[in-house]
# Entry
Amino acid sequence: MPEIKNYTMNFGPQHPAAHGVLRLVLELDGEVIQRADPHIGLLHRATEKLAEHKTFLQSVPYMDRLDYVSMLCNEHAYVQAIEKLAGIDVPVRAQYIRVMFDEITRILNHLMWLGAHGLDIGAMTVFLYCFREREDLMDAYEAVSGARMHAAYYRPGGVYRDMPDTMPQYEASKIHNAAAVKKMNENRQGSLLDFLEDFTRRFPTCVDEYETLLTDNRIWKQRTVDIGIVTPERAVALGMTGPMLRGSGVEWDLRKKRPYAAYDQLDFDIPVGKNGDSYDRYLVRVEEMRQSNRIVKQCITWLRANPGAVMTTNHKFAPPARESMKQNMEELIHHFKLFTEGMHVPAGEAYAAVEHPKGELGIYLVSDGANKPYRLKIRAPGFPHLAALDEMVRGHMIADVVTIIGTQDIVFGEIDR
Amino acid sequence: MTIAKKTLLEELRNQLPEHLVAVKQELGETTIVIKAEGMIPVLTLLRDADGLNFSQMSDLCGMDYSEYGDGEWQGKRFAVVYHLLSLVHNQRLRVRIFAEDDDFPVVVSVASVWPSANWYEREAFDLYGIIFTGHPDLRRILTDYGFVGNPFRKDFPLSGHVEMRYDPEQQRVVYQPVTVEPREVTPRIIREANYASK
# Structure
């Protein structure tokens, strides 16, 4: 009898199903995985160290680049930590705008996840469908902040500015003639809120379309049912949060349990899974998209009815209006100090967490009273999830590794930071 | 079921009377400092005891206090900060443990108490050089293979010590001392308490 040894295989960092730069060293017995050792850090940019050398405001755009498919949720945790330490009151309208964009971000993230996860395990069409809807939400990002992805829209004390009254229009080109452009611009005639309302009307049907493709699909179920089961006790012990925890049947959502911003004013449900497998997590995320759509609708109604300020009037943290800055000496000084020296956050420490699309994103901020953070620790939801990968893939086949990486919704921007 | 902040404090004082070095409640957050010596039974108690039930460790991070408040820090240099979450009581708790030796910081690993600590401790080891005794697999995690130093320590420069480039003569990638000048666009300033107040 020849001696049979385990085979060690390298997966990634250039593998398309590795969702970025995951290097996985797999120890195989035949095609069955005995051990998985993820090597991370290939996208490490030392965001936390960079933040220690930048003023508080300069770090906001860095937060976008953590989890680069759910940009504004990252910013939300960061500005919340500053607001908590400094005791800044945020106008209610800004809270609602934040909630609305958090939920838009959640839909964006889940669409990206659904498309990529489907593509990984053999469903091409759903990817194209998901990106069709993402386009509209990206336009909403662009309309409000000028950037399609890295918005830098939330600021300590509120949001940068109120939402625009008009949407940018398509123009006729070689590819689209005037008639086609007219059709494309149909839902862009009103304000951003009108555009989003039109989206929320269409979106439930779109989710139905994805579900038609996947939910009862025999191949989809064969690839996801009973793959990567996590029991509720293990999920808690392994530090899982978000859909990974809820997929295992633990009803834990920071939006409900520890409401922040305006979430306590809104009506929505928390979907939970039963078996804790990849299929349940898929169902949870799909239902979360529907619930997010509900929240966006409620925010639109509220925002229509309640105009007002979107930035705090505390000019130690938020810049004064440009007009008053030009006419008033004190405001000019405020403006100058804020943009040269930066804001001074009182000494202390705070932990602010938000329900990020992937789980709990926490910012642990330590300040010693300077114009820069003393220490900024980012608690990325994907980090403990990926740490649990070894436990989740043991005993599964190589092809299931792809499913499990997909179901964890891994993004390396936040894991490597 | 949410227990009020005050009861959490009472609960902590009841359950671990002699272990609390300091207790602080600020901004609605509770922070306790415990000794590095005998920390495992205390943390296990925090996880298991009725009325506490901190079943999840959300976060663990290293801290380097050496430049805190521009050098006014008198305590130990390195600390490990744990953020615990009790799902039953909907309660958070921050636990800080200082490493006794500033030159060779050592703390006991809590990977046996909360499995999620495994990678977090590797991260703190990598970035701060804190040794976690009893850790099952204490390797570097975020920095490059063969990296030297602990980049998040305050005495480690932002631009690092070495840079990497392709050397056409040797036809391979070489490491060399950094050539970028260190620069600071906005200086770090701590203002006196009543600065710019009316």
